[in-house]
Specification:
There is one protein chain. Helices cover 38% and strands 15% of the residues. Helix 1 crosses helix 2 and helix 2 packs across helix 3. It is elongated, with a radius of gyration of 19 Å.
């Protein structure tokens, strides 16, 4: 039976075992044509438009939402080159066939080296860096902007990646599955203004606050990491943050050095 329009579903990742921490989303240049082809294959099987977004979400490998304009599908990059039987299983899973989950789990187990793990289960995030204490930043922002609503969210530094220049850099983000905000360690440097770190943490906590409100209305999509889209309510609240524009300008001006760091 097909889920009704707007129904949400997700496929959680199996335990990754000894998954290496270096697995990462492929480069944009490499991933885009492969993602477009994968979306075309799923669309042909479902007979509807498919809007595909690749993720590096280690908690949820597949999630979807039915919308009037088609299917919004969030998919871990390990499925980029999935063979035809797995693509058919994806289409069946989206159509509401619970038996398709077994095929997806078998495929994800076979490719679990592509699912990154940032730290051991139960290991707390590191909050105190060389220059900034994110625990103190979190407490101050929560009291000033969220009335204590996000005090249960853990905020800490992400693990430092390998020493290489990156095409892109994810400076901070909220993982709703784990209720965590992780900040890139490239920002834990003496030349980074405190208001820039404040803004990145505030931006991520704002995602957490709105995600909690959505969940209370049964509207959260369960995909784990916060969506890249910023609805009007988000933008309105973010615009009230002092030095927001200055933080964006500093980040744009220093993007190259951050990618190297």
């Amino acid at each position: 039976m097909r889920p009704p329009p707007g129904q949400l579903a997700m496929f959680d990742a199996p335990s990754p075992g000894n998954t290496p921490a270096h697995a990462r989303l492929p480069s944009r240049e490499d991933a885009l044509p492969r993602a477009a082809e994968l979306a075309r294959r799923v669309s042909a099987l479902l007979g509807m438009p498919v809007h595909l977004r690749l993720t590096d979400n280690r908690a949820t490998l597949v999630s979807y939402r039915r919308l009037p304009e088609g299917l919004r599908l969030r998919l871990h990059h390990l499925f980029l080159d999935a063979p035809d039987p797995v693509v058919r299983a994806l289409a069946l899973y989206v159509s509401g066939d619970p038996a398709a989950r077994d095929a997806l789990e078998a495929f994800s187990h076979a490719h679990q080296a592509q699912v990154r793990r940032e730290r051991e289960p139960g290991e707390p995030l590191r909050t105190r860096g060389r220059c900034f204490d994110l625990k103190a930043v979190h407490a101050r922002l929560d009291a000033a902007w969220f009335d204590g609503r996000v005090q249960g969210v853990e905020v800490g530094w992400a693990r430092r990646p390998g020493r290489r220049t990156r095409r892109t850099i994810h400076l901070g983000g909220y993982d709703a599955r784990l209720r965590e905000v992780r900040v890139h360690p490239a920002l834990d440097r003496p030349h980074v203004p405190a208001f820039v770190v404040d803004f990145i943490v505030f931006h991520s906590l704002l995602h957490a606050d709105l995600a909690a409100a959505d969940a209370a209305q049964d509207a959260h999509d369960g995909t784990g990491r916060c969506a890249a889209e910023h609805p009007p309510a988000f933008l309105e609240r973010e615009a009230a943050f002092p030095l927001r524009e200055s933080a964006w300008r500093w980040l744009l001006d220093n993007l190259s050095s951050l990618r190297r760091g």
